Amino acid sequence: MPTMAATAEVLVLHGSPGSGKSTLTRALAEALRAADVPHGVVDLDELSLVHPHPGPSFARENLHAVWPNYLAAAPHIRLIVPMVVNDVEEVGLVRAAVPGARVTICETTAPVEVLKGAADRPRAHTRVGRGAARLGRRLPLARRPRAHP
Hey, CA dihedral for 92, 13, 41, 10, is it positive or negative? Predict the structure, then answer.
């Protein structure tokens, strides 16, 4: 793996299905392209399309497997990863999948009515994680617990 990994950055766009992760990902990728900033997008839903599904760690294992290729292509890469983060433990697992990168997690939100509408629409290509179906629930990404609305 290239030694310049410390300059690579990963932005995890976390949120419930329908909260705008994919839309924001496309907008950010376009802005980075327009600014000629080396970047990539790894959609963990797309990266884990397989049947039968081998389990919850499959997408992160795939991210870990492709991470060295992104670094080899652009050591100063800005990687955007839209995903549903199910719990605080998963944050550490995502960080482990991209060793040496600075990881930032940004939560996308939307009104409950929008999220309910997204949950009602069929999504043949995605799986809903165990915590993602609880609409309106905020994930405590800080080290100390906070109240859930």
Answer: negative
Classify the C-alpha dihedral 76-102-45-54 as positive or negative.
Answer: positive
Contact between 88 and 140 under an 8 Å Cβ cutoff? The reply is: yes
Tokens of 55: 């389990």
What digits encode the pLDDT tens for the residues 100-116?
A: 999 999 999 888 887 77
- Per the model's pLDDT, the better-predicted residue between 48 and 141 turns out to be 48
Name 79's bridge partners: 10, 40
**Torsion angle defined by CA atoms of residues 52, 53, 55 and 60, in that order, rounded to the nearest 10 degrees:** 150
- The DSSP letter of residue 127 is -
- pLDDT given at position 12: 96
Q: Tell me the whole-structure pTM to 2 decimals.
A: 0.73
Instruction: Report residue 115 as tokens.
Output: 């999220």
Give rounded-to-5 percent helix, strand, coil for the chain: 40, 15, 45
Q: Does residue 26 surpass a pLDDT of 90?
A: yes
